[in-house]
Amino acid sequence: MSDSAITYTLYIQADPARVWQALTEPALTRRYWGLSFETDWAVGSPMDWVEHGARTSDPAQVVLDCVPHRRLSYTWHTFTPGWAAAAGVGEELRAALAREPRTRVTYEIEPVGDTLARLTVLHEGFTPGSTMIGMCARTWPLLVSSLKTLLETGAPLPEPGHEPGQGHGGHEAYGD
């Protein structure tokens, strides 16, 4: 991790096509991430994030790169009041996140032998020391570990418990 990017690499006992499915198919993303993406995955296409019953849409929320089974990149989601309410995030935290520049995520998938894939996640474009980089640095290891566990065992990691009103996916470290 740098002060403006997070890089996380892991090895998954699955072929690149299966890792790709886990990144792009709603039935799988809901299982380990708790959300789904509605998009056709064509470069430039919009992406709706559907999470905790809320749909987040924005013209700047788009697919940046898409090479099936190898590379996927998109802009990070928009922090709307509807998203915050559904995710249990307070308005003060949501407003702070909304003031930060939009970031982007890139997944690189590489085969390693016949039955193993190396997945590298690069989340970049953070303001150094921002609230969002702290939240994402805490969340990505759990998220990709759950993806790996789902592909290798058939079940994702259990979601850690959260205190009421503290949100999901690492928001709790930053209060409302």
Question: Unreliable stretches, pLDDT < 50, 5 or more residues?
Answer: 162-176
Number of strands: 8
Oligomer: single chain
Average predicted local confidence, pLDDT: 90
Strand order of the largest sheet: 1-8-7-6-5
Kindly state the percentage of residues in helix. Answer: 25-40%
Could you tell me the strand content as a percent range? 25-35%
Shape: globular
**Helix/strand-derived class?**
alpha+beta
Provide structural commentary.
The chain is of the alpha+beta class and 176 residues long. The protein is 32% helix and 27% strand. Helix 1 (16-24) packs across helix 2 (26-33).
Layout of strands and helices, then pairs:
Layout lengths: L4 E8 L3 H9 L1 H8 L1 E4 L9 E4 L2 E3 L6 E5 L3 E5 L5 H7 L3 H9 L4 E9 L3 E9 L6 H23 L23
Antiparallel strand pairs: 1-8, 2-3, 3-4, 5-6, 6-7, 7-8
Task: Spell out the key features of this protein.
single chain; 176 residues; alpha+beta; 5-stranded antiparallel beta sheet; 3-stranded antiparallel beta sheet; 5 helices; 32% helix; disordered C terminus
Give a brief rundown of this model.
The chain is of the alpha+beta class and 176 residues long. 32% of the residues lie in helices and 27% in strands.
